SDR family NAD(P)-dependent oxidoreductase
Amino acid sequence: MDINGASAIVTGGASGIGEAAVRQLAAKGAKVVVADLQADKGEALAKEVGGAFVRVDVTDTAQIEAAVTKATELGPLRALVNSAGIGWAQRTIGRDGEFSSAHDLDAYKKVIAINLVGTFDACRLAATAMSKNDPLESGERGAIVNMASVAAFDGQIGQASYSSSKGGVVGMTLPVARDLAAVGVRVNTIAPGLIDTPIYGEGEAAEAFKAKLGESVLFPHRLGKPDELASMVIELVTNSYMNAEVIRVDGGIRMPPK
């Protein structure tokens, strides 16, 4: 699918994997809406790539709608990349046998709301706009790429909320792809492994920590680069025969219990 001259939306697009996806989509000629909470970084990136920034909290339907509307003003919306997400680590129960020490339920709900419900909300709204596009010669009207995690399969101790949310993203890939096949919109999901993003911090200590993490990767023995994830995003957007698939991009890692 040719996205030159079309518009695209990347949630969580101001940094990390999302930023790399924004840059690579723009390099393919797409007008990209950077949908993020980080206004300073998002606005600077959008200006750099010739796109637009829309402040989006993915738990707010009206803000997602605003991003979709903005995208359609830039060109036919052909691509959505759902990269916004958060993490949370806490064991299911505490050590003292008290109900109050069990996993924070509000934290669990927040992770689900952002990572899973927010992803689905963006899918349903963007796909609605895509359904009104004129079909391309291939019959396509658009493509959606969701970001899950290897935690959907190899969830570690303390990752109940995060793994639940990402497992939900994996689980909805096929049914949503089946729903949207009727209008020529493809849906695929990427499950990243350990990726070098700002979440790990900066400095000598951070670099040593990342190097230690990288030792657990089968090959190569390092963290993945955002550009390596973004290249898969581009493949899933542009390859017209990729649909309803979940692809691990993880260097072969299988996460241990902790």
